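From the shared-data thread, chain only:
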Amino acid sequence: MIVIGFFLLCISLFFFLGNIIKSVKIEIQEWGFIIFFLIFGLAIIAFCIDPPEAWDLSRHYELINEMEIGGWSYVLNKSIYAHLPVINMIYGILAMIKMPHLLPVIVVIICYTILWYIVYKTVKDEKMDTKYVAYFILFNFALCPYLHMVSGIRNILAYAIASFTLYIDIMQKKNKILVVMMYSSTLLIHPSSSIILGIRLLLPIIERFNVIWCILPFWSLAIESIIKLLTTIPNQYIKSIGWKLLDYLTGNPYSGYKILVFKYIMLVSILALVLYIQKKIKNINKNLFRYVNILKITIFIAIGAFRIVFITDRMCYFIAFAGIPVLAYLCNNLSKKIKQLFKIEMLTICSMLFIHQILYFSKDLVG
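Structure, as tokens:
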């Protein structure tokens, strides 16, 4: 079965490379079929992966097996995710039908369907050349590694849903009840997604007081005080966020410093160009203006997490999805020369991130 997955993946990559290198014209409807094959192939590969013991996925499988043995009583009362009912219910259902290997499949399908929705709507609404579909997809794969998604499960799933919710909230002004339900679901998958909800709720305050923009790049200098505040609040959910931050700060050392510099270069470049365009172009759609501001805040938080760089990775997961409309905004407003330089820089950084992913994960999968 895994051969079929790789075959579909290779077909999709052929069209991606042809679109980028040879500028092969692919219509948006044809892209839909290519993305379908891509998602289907990646879902098959996810189903077939036998995770090394060091991967989080192996622990997820162990938990599902425990749920299968303990039944619904264990799922509802003793599961470590009992306080996160959305993800806990997914695990419980997979345990009852005895199909733990469907877990990464579900995550892959949900995340990449969200990615395609954002890309499709952005390209269509902004009347962009369809060649940008390949660039947007590659941008996502570079900042949000496929195997991180398959192994980590909850983090990227929560941020993908948060990015979708933000898009329909700010850009499309969808029904508020639906939006609230979607934001709530992300909180009940992984507590770290509360950062996105916090940004959304505080956006009017941040936009009003310019001094906050100056503080954001240095927020992690106060990380101990933030942790102390969160862990003293008499609410189990909020306390769990504080304990998770403490674990990020004092737990296992971060191992991705060598590649972190490329992420910082990418984030700073996007931020600098956004600031440049916002200063140059005053007549901007109000919804897009607010959306761009949210991404600016996210980038500031990612850059400011120099004392707790696990947060930088988490913000990159979110930006990999939510950043696509902002990239479209840049491509539509930059001069031809600056746009070409930006594309070359993005492709170079994405290539470096891809190489790092291959080398990093090959040690686990092969060695």
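The CA atoms of residues 271 and 296 lie 6 Å apart.
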